[in-house]
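For reproducibility, we list the full input for the beta-D-fucofuranose complex.
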Amino acid sequence: MKNRWWKRLLSVAVICVCTSGLLAGCGPFGDVTAQPDDLETSSDEEEDLIVVGFSQIGSESVWRTANSASIQKAFSRENGFFLEFNNARQKQENQIKAIRGFISQRVDYIVFSPVTEDGWETVLQEAKDAGIPVILVDRKVVVEDESLYTTWIGSDAEGEGEKAGIWLEGYLEEAEREDESINIVVLQGTPEASVQLGRTIGFESVAANHPNWRILEQKSADFTNAKGEEVMDEFIKKYQDIDVVVSQNDDMTFGALKALEANGITTGVDGDVIVVSFDAVHEALELVQHGIINVDVECNPEQGDYIVDIIRKLENGEPVRKENIVEEQVFTPENVEQYLDTRTY
Ligand code: GYE
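The corresponding predicted structure, in tokenized form, follows.
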């Protein structure tokens, strides 16, 4: 990329003006981790760093923390990057503000994980007009003009939902319960998030083949432990006979397990209620190992290196695919053991 040196200087100027308070209320980057000292362009090497502005959704889950760590590790100075990391605290308006800040800094790349699918057209057009490539990570956007972003990398959320449904099919068959009436409740993630929508559609597509599966209710618990507990408690009070809890991430599952236990309901392999979870973070895999969670559909948060690869290709003028899906699997008590030692998050 050309003119990196001038962009760096501009970045320094923007941050210095902000931090010295010359512009009242100026603070476009929220939790940006960069400090003025970090920005000193002291050597030729520094001038060559690729500047990446990254807007993360927040820190709502163990998965998200692992995803942030993966990105921070991959975009290191040793790898040739200068990372401006912004935490949007679950708010789209904060993400838009951060992206506008990155545009005015003239970063080399904008990377972000969109909290919800809609509402990105204007800011993405601004990035396009400024000639800054945008890489989407983890979640997707819905835009009419797909040229507004360069590429997306993340999980096949619909495929994950389907895997959960297919696992349940097999499990019920093996238990000779395939003809029983099966009552299901679903703890959903953040409303309008592509991952929530995908997991819902995927699971529903399998459920549609089973007239005896009754989805009693699907309700958002926002991907958090606290809300998972709260919504599960509501479900327990409302429905007498729950056979299956589908929880669209591990944090909500942890909350739900607390609510179930508090109400004297057992879960898992030998329990009253079948628990289906998503993400497969270490703590959840331990619960799979102990038979408390029946199945955990993996969602891989370690996406940092993949994004670095994509940027390297773009820097070399090589073509990149519009969609890049990370590999994922399904964990049950039968296979989980071998993965536990290597799981770092
Ligand atoms: O499942 C959840 C998180 O978008 C895939 O967001 C991600 C989801 C993940 O907070 O734990």
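The radius of gyration is 22 Å. Residues 5-153+302-325 form a domain with the Rossmann fold fold (CATH 3.40.50.2300). Both points were considered when choosing residues for closer inspection.
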